[in-house]
């Protein structure tokens, strides 16, 4: 099982002129790398741009845990509203083919 985290590629508002418009990409990569170092999840593949979204990939845990990680990504500072998760497999032929889940998940 792989969970794709689809983040809309929207520039971070309020950045100085000439700044990289998507600093949250590195923030998310660092966050996921830290979780991987702790053994919580595995980063399945490098994140990549796909049309108007940037896609991150996590695996190595159960569905609930992977969706919790995706939910945490959706609430990181600078991450665009409208982030979604897609539950798929490592054999999917394209991004976004699977069950879509709205994130962040509601608090229990």
| Fraction of residues in β-strands | 25-35%
Question: Would you identify the regions where 5 or more consecutive residues have pLDDT less than 50?
Answer: none
Structural class: alpha+beta
Q: State the major sheet.
A: 5 strands, antiparallel
Can you count the beta strands?
5
What is the overall number of helices? 2
Radius of gyration: 13 Å
Write the H/E string, N to C. EHEEHEE
Oligomeric form:
single chain
Percent of residues in helices comes to: 10-25%
Shape: globular
Distance between the termini: 24 Å
- In round numbers, the mean pLDDT is 92
Q: Widest sheet: strand order?
A: 2-3-1-4-5
List strands and helices in order, with pairings.
Layout: E1 2-8, H1 24-37, E2 42-50, E3 53-59, H2 63-74, E4 84-88, E5 99-102
Antiparallel strand pairs: 1-3, 1-4, 2-3, 4-5
Description:
It is a single chain. This protein has 108 residues and is α+β, with helices and mostly antiparallel strands. It is 24% helix and 30% strand. It contains two helices and five strands, in the order βαββαββ. It has helices at residues 24-37, 63-74; strands at 2-8, 42-50, 53-59, 84-88, 99-102. A hairpin with a 2-residue loop joins β2 and β3. It is globular and about 40 Å long. The mean pLDDT is 92.
């Amino acid at each position: 099982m792989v969970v794709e985290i689809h983040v809309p590629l929207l520039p971070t508002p309020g950045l100085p002129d000439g700044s990289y418009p998507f600093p949250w990409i590195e923030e998310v990569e660092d966050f996921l790398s830290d979780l991987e170092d702790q053994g919580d999840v595995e980063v399945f593949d490098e994140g990549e741009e796909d049309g108007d979204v940037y896609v991150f990939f996590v695996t190595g845990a159960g569905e609930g845990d992977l969706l919790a990680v995706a939910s945490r990504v959706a609430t990181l500072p600078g991450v665009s509203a409208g982030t979604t998760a897609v539950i798929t497999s490592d054999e999917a032929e394209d991004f976004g083919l699977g069950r879509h889940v709205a994130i962040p998940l509601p608090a229990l």
